[in-house]
Design a protein that fits this description.
This protein has 125 residues and is an alpha+beta fold. The protein has two domains: 42 residues, no CATH class; 50 residues, no CATH class.
């Protein structure tokens, strides 16, 4: 499957005894030999074709994460070993704060007591 229409969908349709649309983004083909083929999202990547796989409201944060992570690596001024590194928490938090501001959403800040509770396994239930 790919991001573009699957060429075999048209071929499946031509070789089918009949075809139906079972639900949104699901096409069912019954072949002459009785076998059934269900094609999701016209043969495209299903999370892109039949859902909100990558809405711009999510991708903007992904791109921000990539850009700020690159900036972070460049400003380190020291080579990094070839490895997988987590995005620094400060970058993630910065992106989250800026996204909330852009959406006009304000959230409460944790009190020192709440932070202590969250960091402890001894408090609470």
């Amino acid at each position: 499957m790919g991001s573009y229409s699957c060429r075999n969908v048209a071929g499946s349709s031509r070789r089918s005894a009949h075809a139906t649309a079972n639900a949104i983004d699901i096409a069912a083909f019954v072949l002459e030999n009785g076998r059934r083929i269900s094609v999701l999202g016209e043969g495209r990547l299903i999370n892109l074709a039949a859902a909100e796989g990558h809405p711009s409201s999510v991708m903007d944060m992904s791109f921000a994460n990539q850009a700020l992570s690159i900036e972070y690596m460049v400003t380190l001024k020291k080579p990094l070993a070839k490895d997988v590194y987590p995005v620094p928490e400060a970058i993630d938090q910065q992106i989250a704060r800026e996204k909330l501001v852009a959406m006009g959403i304000a959230i409460d800040q944790l009190t020192p007591e709440q932070k202590k509770y969250l960091a402890s396994w001894e408090l609470g239930t």
